[in-house]
Design brief:
homodimer, 195 residues, mainly alpha, 70% helix, elongated, DNA-binding
DNA sequence: TGCTTTATGTACCATTTGATATAGAAAGGC
DNA sequence: GCCTTTCTATATCAAATGGTACATAAAGCA
């Protein structure tokens, strides 16, 4: 079977550009013209390669989690629970304030509040955020079992606390807070960690 | 001068309804039909009474700050810095999870990421959030002067920390977290407070 | 009772929205 | 060369968007 005319653009690269648009403007704030202009492809090319706007957004979510935000998840590999939290904060702050990206966390601001048609994406984003809370909780449960986290500490509560600080830092970053300011906030938050 | 035909609707009540729409769906997710239906007025009535969509949103911001969110600001009147923070968390959580309101904080999710036309509203929301950070900082500065907060504590950092937790709680609430869960998170956050 | 003023509701406006039809261009297989 | 296949670009679609004109209705004032 013949292969036809080859694509003139790189799909991953175009997806990266789309992600940045969604990241900065949110799903509803990202118009097709804004997307196609940033992606440097025509509208039919976008639809041929990514389906439609919603499908493009879903692919952008995966791209974000596996790309820019991957470092955060890999922080779970640290040796102790406290080291995990320190590394999560540190890595997140770097991502949230990286000048190459829009400010803030895509999973927070990509579709936090929206109309009915985008509501399924709002829930999808909440689900993705929750997946990280679950991963944190499981990591902390392991830490309790391994003895590097006090057994009276509730892993679920601690996981939600870390996620709360993380999402709060995202809002701060989105509002224009500097990296230093966020680092000081994270340092204060760490004082809440069980000794 | 004659007064003309009287309004058939209550302006404040209509504004309250508009606020709830913006609160739940965000600025860009709130269409004129959705607004007018919730406000129970016709489109020309909306424009006559509130100017346009942007102006209605700005009025909704004021309404939110002076109405539902007023309790949070009044927490600054507590006797000590720690009591202020406790009361801020407690009052916020009640607001964030009040079943009569949309979940989350309007100042966070009303226009966190949006297109160019709404960018001035995004900045306005950031400014409003920052006003609370400033108020917190000033309150903590006073607390240092009054001796109920350690003099080596940085009021600006602490204020930003409290705001960070607050905004993080908003995201959690918006994702469906229960009041109890948020209360436990706040309790953990309080452990970071200077002794 | 007019007359002025303001509010309401229908119908409409231009623009933008997300999404395609269609025609032409660029590759491989025969 | 020719055919098939796939991508690209222009031009377009119907629907939804924010915003108004215009006629009518309801009040106060003379």
């Amino acid at each position: 079977m013949s292969s036809g005319r080859p694509r003139e653009f790189n799909v991953e690269e175009a997806l990266d550009r789309a992600l940045k648009v969604f990241w900065r403007r949110g799903y509803e704030g990202s118009s097709l013209p804004a997307l196609t202009k940033a992606m440097r492809i025509s509208r039919p090319s976008l639809y041929a390669a990514f389906g439609n706007k919603e499908s493009l957004f879903r692919k952008a979510i995966d791209r974000y989690v596996e790309g820019p935000a991957a470092g955060i998840r890999s922080a779970l590999g640290e040796a102790t629970a406290r080291a995990v939290v320190e590394r999560v904060f540190c890595t997140s702050i770097e991502l949230l304030t990286d000048s190459r990206n829009p400010r803030g966390c895509f999973l927070v601001q990509g579709a936090l509040a929206c109309g009915d048609t985008a509501d399924c994406l709002r829930r999808e984003m909440a689900k993705r955020r929750d997946e990280f809370v679950v991963a944190l909780r499981e990591r902390f449960e392991r830490a309790v079992a391994e003895g590097d986290l006090a057994s009276n500490a509730d892993p679920a509560d601690l996981a939600r606390f870390v996620a709360t600080v993380l999402h709060g830092l995202s809002v701060q970053a989105s509002s224009g807070a500097s990296r230093r300011e966020l680092e000081r906030v994270a340092q204060i938050a760490l004082r809440a960690w069980p000794a």
